[in-house]
């Protein structure tokens, strides 16, 4: 019995020494065992998807999209550059598609597609209300065609859009692509602020970084009005927000001040005040009834502005 125990103990010690030496010097059997472990334990390949994303998780491909020839811009064409975070991105609770075929377009990467949720150019794959706005602009007689150019990133704070931020070069690239496609931006729609409230940004810092983003627009030939939404409300920790919302906060004060500061900046939709609890499907993101309210409010603003400034 003692002999058996001694032999077993000796074998264990030998295996330990052999394993340590093999691992340290990368000799048999360590490399082979390592490969086997990785092969057996490797995660299964992701199942195929209709969607393609870039390294910033922006939707850049969707095999269901319908490509069309980019329409020529006229004085009755709205070209909307859409910027912000999740409530400007594909996080809506209701999907929409063009009711007018190629008259409502999703422009992305020097290509054009019939607009349908989710829109290429922004993060996530749920719904959005910009296509609904495009339908309303045409139905109202305001425009004959609408070009939607979305560039919205879920959870993005304003600093990322300012000069030096990681989204600033993406903004510049988007403007260049639109210009190369022959499009002159007629309005810039900014829907952002919830993230900055959560991280405790000050009104002064928010204003400075927003103006840095506006300077980027102006430096690249965009002279169109920039509509800054009053947007700071995103409740519940599951959304990265708070349990309760305080309407009078630093971000709202900054947004209101910016909308009155000149520089072609105008007040956009006040989603904080416009939407109630039923309009946000998860206490933060805009659901079907909210989409109807917000798109109608944007329509009213854009229809009331007959002095759209050219962007050079």
TrEMBL record:
Look up keyword Transcription regulation and say if it applies. no
| Matching Pfam families | SASA
Annotated Sialate O-acetylesterase domain residues: 78-220
Tell me, what is one Gene Ontology molecular-function annotation carried by this entry?
hydrolase activity, acting on ester bonds
The cross-references to InterPro entries, in alphabetical order and at most eight, read: Carb_Esterase_6, SASA, SGNH_hydro_sf
Q: Which UniProt keywords apply?
A: Hydrolase, Plasmid
Q: PANTHER family under this entry?
A: 9-O-ACETYL-N-ACETYLNEURAMINIC ACID DEACETYLASE-RELATED, ESTERASE, PUTATIVE (DUF303)-RELATED
- What is this protein identified as? Sialate O-acetylesterase domain-containing protein
What species was this sequence derived from? Rhizobium leguminosarum bv. trifolii (strain WSM2304)
């Amino acid at each position: 019995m003692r002999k058996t125990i001694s032999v077993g103990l000796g074998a264990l010690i030998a295996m330990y020494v052999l394993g340590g030496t093999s691992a340290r010097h990368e000799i048999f059997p360590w490399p082979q065992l390592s490969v086997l472990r990785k092969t057996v334990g490797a995660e299964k390949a992701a199942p195929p998807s209709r969607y393609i994303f870039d390294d910033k998780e922006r939707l850049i491909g969707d095999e269901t999209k319908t490509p069309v020839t980019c329409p020529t811009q006229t004085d009755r064409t709205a070209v909307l550059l859409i910027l912000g975070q999740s409530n400007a991105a594909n996080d809506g609770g209701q999907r929409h598609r063009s009711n007018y075929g190629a008259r409502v377009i999703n422009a992305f990467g020097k290509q054009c597609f019939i607009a349908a949720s989710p829109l290429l150019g922004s993060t996530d794959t749920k719904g959005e209300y910009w296509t609904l706005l495009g339908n309303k602009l045409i139905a109202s007689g305001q425009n004959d065609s609408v070009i939607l150019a979305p560039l919205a990133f879920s959870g993005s704070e304003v600093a990322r859009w300012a000069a030096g931020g990681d989204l600033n070069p993406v903004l510049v690239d988007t403007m260049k692509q639109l210009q190369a496609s022959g499009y002159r931006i007629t309005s810039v729609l900014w829907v952002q602020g919830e993230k900055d409230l959560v991280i405790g940004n000050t009104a002064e810092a928010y204003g400075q970084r927003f103006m840095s983003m506006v300077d980027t627009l102006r430096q690249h030939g965009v002279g169109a009005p920039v509509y800054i939404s009053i947007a700071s409300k995103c409740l519940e920790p599951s959304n990265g927000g708070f349990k309760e919302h305080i309407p009078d906060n630093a971000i709202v004060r900054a947004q209101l001040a910016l909308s009155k500061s000149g520089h072609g900046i105008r007040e956009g939709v006040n989603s904080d005040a416009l939407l109630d609890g039923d309009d946000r499907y998860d206490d933060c993101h805009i659901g079907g009834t909210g989409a109807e309210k917000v798109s109608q409010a944007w329509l009213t603003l854009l229809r009331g502005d007959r002095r759209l400034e050219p962007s050079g």
